[in-house]
Amino acid sequence: xxxxxxxxxxxxxxxxxxxxxxxxxxxxxxxxxxxxxxxxxxxxxxxxxxxxxxxxxxxxxxxxxxxxxxxxxxxxxxxxxxxxxxxxxxxxxxxxxxxxxxxxxxxxxxxxxxxxxxxxxxxxxxxxxxxxxxxxxxxxxxxxxxxxxxxxxxxxxxxxxxxxxxxxxxxxxxxxxxxxxxxxxxxxxxxxxxxxxxxxxxxxxxxxxxxxxxxxxxxxxxxxxxxxxxxxxxxxxxxxxxxxxxxxxxxxxxxxxxxxxxxxxxxx
Length: 268
Prior knowledge:
Elements: H1 4-15, E1 22-26, H2 28-38, H3 43-49, H4 60-66, H5 72-78, H6 90-95, E2 99-106, E3 112-116, H7 126-131, E4 141-143, E5 146-150, H8 159-164, E6 170-173, H9 185-195, H10 199-206, H11 208-224, E7 228-231, H12 246-259, H13 263-267
Parallel strand pairs: 1-2, 6-7
Antiparallel strand pairs: 2-3, 2-5, 4-5
Helix pairs in contact: 1-2, 1-12, 9-10
């Protein structure tokens, strides 16, 4: 839910005519970027401030009934398929000249997996679903018989991947303050639970803070060198991974929209 901030940033890029041709998305950021590529301004905000208030979308009722806090089928199929209530423009997405990489975590190895843009097709959105599948709170997303979880477990800030792909500068959108390093204690209980079925993924989750903090330090160094622009909220307005009061989400989105203005000078 914190990436309502990123939704605001990307809507601002569209309004300002800023084109970034190589995109890499993790978790909710992957969903946000897919809508930036399909140029569906405003669509992704509805997935933060409108649909989550439905019991079919997320909540304790979903967890008790289906074993997942988020109803991924409802989000990525019922609402988003071509015949759904709020369809994702898959044709516009695939025709776009923007490159896109979607980061998920292989539950069997604990390693990051980088799905290509073409992994999204009409009536097929499981790669982007996998990228945002929260461990423990959600069942893994199955793709070709293999289980996947949130890409934030194994490669939470994959800006190095952009440099490997040929970028000389990167714009990175964070969902927390850029001085907010992760506390390892936050992941230990969830890592123990996850390890019961997926030990490699549990190990990766236990090291998530170490991975995130290392990548964040490297990113901040790249920013000092002029190779990166980091766009991050100064305050998350009380919004957490799952907490979603509409007025707070809207305020966080607006913060992102205003912060997105910085990209114009950096991208040029």
